[in-house]
Amino acid sequence: QGVHQRGEEQRPDRHRRYVPDGASLEIEHHGADQGADDDHRVQADETPFEKLPDRHLRPTVVVGVADDETREDEEEIDDDEYDDDDYDDIDYVAENGALIRNPEKVYAVHSYPTEAVKAIEKFLFDQLPNLNFLVCGEQAAYGLDILPERYFKTSSHYYHHLEKVKSFSDIHDKILKFAIECPDEKTDYFVQLFKDNLNQYSDVTSSGHGDIDIIQPGIHKANGLKELGDILGIKLSEMCAFGDGGNDLEMLREVGDGVAMKNAVPALLEVANHVTDTNDDEGVLNYIEKNIL
Fold this sequence. Notes:
Helix content: 25-40%
Largest sheet: 8 strands, mixed
Shape: globular
Number of helices: 9
Distance between the termini: 12 Å
Strand order of the largest sheet: 7-6-5-4-1-14-15-16
């Protein structure tokens, strides 16, 4: 059985392992002594997450953002309290399913054909300055140097390999998706605009709050999990997945146990098999401890 998690909030008072787009794997004990001094924190192998391998459960981080960020997060776990070797078997489904890997190797990369890339780039360019966008490749994310400096500064927190380019022709990479930032109140408008004009090249998904992804048709989180499951010999029906945003819809709908966070978007709450506590209330760990371990 595979266990997959994403969350939304990042709280500085928690020792978390971050993956952008809000996905995280908690490595702090959340039981009766939660909030105790660091000296009293239990070792990682006593937490619900650390118990998963002992029950033949394989954790996977499934995110809508760049794979380079998940690599950075692996380094953040370097702490005297925790053994890095405990996380060597974590798999990653990144860029909404376009990139599938673990710390040792890449399982699969799905990229856009050149014709589609050019058409999408032109359409997005024509929407400036009403939105900002990045062209997300296997090696890095790329933004035109005419975009606001504020946008690059914010994006650098989520794309650690971020490059400014003068022209799209300066990009020499496999393109996996396009990430768009727009005003929060315009999210639904742009989602529909992209669906109406780019449907022959792409699917459109949004995690809300002005964040939109233009992704390859059929390449989403559920597809990525299925592909990873085929490699590992794990069926979608044997997986449990957690989600809170619109880009988690296919994943929660297709796995055996789709669990929505209590603060999830309405569409997710409608399709979920179960609902757990909010991200702030450690809903994923609570559900794992009560229903899986």
